[in-house]
Amino acid sequence: MRHFILLLSAIVPTKANGWSWSPLSPAIDGAPRVSGQTTASIIDDSNNSCSSGVLLFGGLTGAAGSPTTNDLWHFEDVTEEWTKLSPEQCPRVRMYADPRKYYIFGGWDPMDPGSGGEFLNDIWSYDMATKAWTEEEAELPFPVSRHAAVAVGEGEHGMVIIHTFKGIFTFRNGQLTEQATEGDAPDSLSMCAMTAVGNKVLLFGGSDKTQQMSSAVHVLDTTNWVWTKLQCTHDDGPGPMASACMAPLSENQCIVFGGAALAPTGYEGGYGLLPKDDTWVCKLSEKNVEWERVECKEVPEGRVAASLNSLGGDRFLMQGGYDPVSKGTFGTPWILRKT
Hints:
Blueprint lengths: L2 E2 L4 E2 L4 E2 L2 E5 L14 E6 L7 E7 L14 E5 L4 E5 L17 E7 L8 E10 L4 E4 L12 E5 L6 E6 L2 E6 L2 E5 L2 E2 L9 E5 L2 E5 L12 E5 L4 E4 L1 E2 L12 E6 L2 E5 L2 E3 L10 E3 L3 E6 L3 E7 L12 E4 L4 E5 L2 E2 L4 E2 L4 E5 L1
Parallel strand pairs: 3-27, 16-20, 21-27
Antiparallel strand pairs: 1-2, 4-32, 5-6, 6-7, 7-8, 9-10, 10-11, 12-13, 13-14, 14-15, 17-18, 18-19, 19-20, 22-23, 23-26, 24-25, 26-27, 28-29, 29-32, 30-31
């Protein structure tokens, strides 16, 4: 929010009422306490607008340098409980892998402290029917982390859009392809929030290699592969930030929570990151974006690298995330619902 003291007035963000956050109370060790994990909503085939839960894989278990995990969890929508699954063969531990339903792409394994870890380029798929992981033959052309991916389309027309700081890739029918695009692309950005709205991919925020953050909203039309950088209709949306979480709300709207902004002193090796606890509705038009801040009596703690997934019926599950100030990782699930 920007205050103009000399004019004795202020620009007040547009407010979206009628939403509420509520925490769940899992048993001890009954929910994944991670950040930078990969998740996917499980869609009921009999009604593709209805979720039957969420899959969650991997993530960082603490602050930078702490171990990552290759645990696979399932959130059951009806019981609102997490269950740890135990497939026999698993991908190696990692964070910042990205899903298309049950796919993961690349990621980072920090390995031993001080080693710098290893960035990965493998692709794995998980079959809910057989409860088994399969390593795909295709590989990313380079190791990558802090990227983002979303599913667009269904059936034979469905594909995964993978955004990296080097460009766009598509994954369809087991084949990975580098996709040329035109327009105002979000090049060099990573740690972006990303989701799909219809046949378009929405990208918000992110950070470049110099730790400068973005508040821009970019939309990629997958029918012509043209990027558009949307103009904000009012100067009252979220500021520059990275590692927010995002989920689709409708054909032209999405929900955004959290992320981190920079302190006036800058990045300072991560000590200058300021976690945000704001919830926003992002409304899209052909060339513009309008932001509405969601007002709730109770809100989750500010965090980065959490996951946000649709449960259907204007309900969303947020899990995990990391507080760069307290150095704490969150395990309590939160439900956002339309009231």
